[in-house]
Design goal:
Chain lengths: 166, 252
């Protein structure tokens, strides 16, 4: 079979080889670079998606935690408020009760004192009435004479006054 | 015993169409291309977002490697252009054609026409980019820099670009092929001479077998076929990338 020279230039071979190179370039693009680039891009997108998902999940968790903490703080404050209100109420109540009791006691005491006073007055008055009779008797016996009613009364008054003062 | 060092065989020749020729070179290139495309098809079959197959990992590695090569050598702005598959195809075709000599084919890159064709293609891209970047007048004016006297020298240097690219590639592969052929021939001759010294029918029989051809050519083949093939493909691609990015750089 006919052969070329070892070092030779064949224009048709050159044209064929340029065409071959271009053809292989197109085929490589179609069958290797394009599909692989697409799959790499897809994977990149998926990873980015996962990352953003993770980030949003983290943000969610953080906001949940913040909300929870706020709620806890609120609850604690509320509890403190309730306790302090109850304490205040109790103190008020006991103070009121004490005051009331004191007042009652005072009232009872006053009433008792008034009763005593009244009893004493009554006793005194009774004594006074009785004493006037006795004094009259004694006086009539001593003086042995009738004393006019007017003088009589005045004398008794004097007497009682003296007795009262004594 | 004679050693013939010839070019590619001419399979079809039609002198009427401006000397149309279909040579062994082109047919071997087609076979290499078919194998490369089949390999691509195989590797990118059923691609998955979460790869489970080794072949997908290899495909992704190849694509990423070529992208990195183009991105590092030419610049990031070339990453999504046709230059990436071009460089990939250029490397694979050059290396594949050179490596076809391993299975006994005549390497297409051992034909000056092949690499000269590719080099002219690169030259066309460079010239187009230079004209696009600097304008036609700027392109012509560029040859007169720094002084007008330099014009012929600059034209020669410009033309020398594809020629040197082609000759570097061709020379390396062809010389490897020549050396391999010579060593095979030499060892066969030596073998037949040495074994022919044995007496009688044994020597006659053994001298027909080139026993000494075992061993040494395999070691040399490691360099001339594998290392040199890949290295020349890499050099050719690197030069292409440097010339193209240089031609598109308006600062020049």
């Amino acid at each position: 079979m006919e052969t070329q020279e070892f070092v030779s230039i064949a224009p048709w071979t050159m044209i064929f080889q340029i065409a071959n190179l271009l053809l292989l370039m197109i085929l490589f693009k179609k069958f290797l670079f394009k599909p692989v680039t697409e799959i790499l891009e897809k994977r990149r997108m998926e990873i980015e998606g996962k990352y953003s998902e993770a980030e949003s999940a983290e943000a969610d968790a953080k906001s949940l935690k913040a909300e929870y903490e706020t709620r806890m703080r609120g609850a604690r404050e509320e509890a403190e408020q309730i306790v302090s209100a109850a304490t205040q109420n109790a103190a008020q109540l006991s103070a009121n009760m004490l005051k009331e009791t004191n007042e009652q006691a005072e009232q009872i005491k006053r009433k008792a004192e008034a009763d005593i006073q009244r009893e004493r007055q009554k006793a005194f008055n009774d004594a006074k009435g009785e004493l006037s009779g006795i004094a009259l008797d004694i006086a009539s016996q001593i003086l042995d004479r009738e004393i006019s009613e007017k003088d009589h009364d005045a004398m008794i008054e004097d007497f009682i006054k003296n007795v009262g003062e004594a | 015993m004679s050693i013939n060092i010839t070019g590619a065989r001419i399979l079809v020749s039609i002198p009427q169409f401006g000397g149309f020729m279909l040579t062994e070179t082109v047919v071997t290139t087609w076979i290499v291309m078919a194998l490369l495309v089949l390999a691509c098809r195989f590797m990118t079959k059923n691609l998955e977002v979460h790869p489970t197959r080794k072949r997908q990992v290899i495909a992704e590695w190849i694509v990423t490697a070529v992208q990195n090569l183009v991105g590092d050598t030419m610049g990031k702005q070339y990453l999504n252009t046709w230059y990436v598959p071009l460089i990939g195809a250029m490397f694979a075709l050059s290396a594949g054609c050179s490596l076809s000599s391993v299975v006994g084919a005549k390497a297409p890159t051992c034909d000056l026409s092949t690499v000269l064709g590719w080099a002219f293609f690169v030259f066309a891209i460079i010239t187009y980019l230079k004209i696009r970047t600097n304008g036609p007048w700027g392109y012509v004016k560029g040859f007169a820099a720094p002084v007008v006297v330099m014009f012929p020298m600059n034209v020669i240097s410009e033309v020398a670009t594809p020629v040197s690219m082609a000759l570097r590639h061709f020379g390396n592969i062809a010389s490897g092929s020549v050396i391999t052929t010579l060593i095979y021939g030499g060892l066969a001759g030596l073998s037949s001479m040495v074994l022919g010294l044995l007496p009688g029918a044994v020597g006659d029989f053994l001298s027909r077998i080139p026993l000494l051809s075992f061993g040494l050519p395999a070691v040399l083949s490691l360099y001339f076929d594998f290392f040199s093939s890949v290295l020349q493909a890499f050099i050719f691609c690197t030069l292409t990338m440097i010339y193209i990015s240089g031609a598109a750089d308006p600062g020049e």
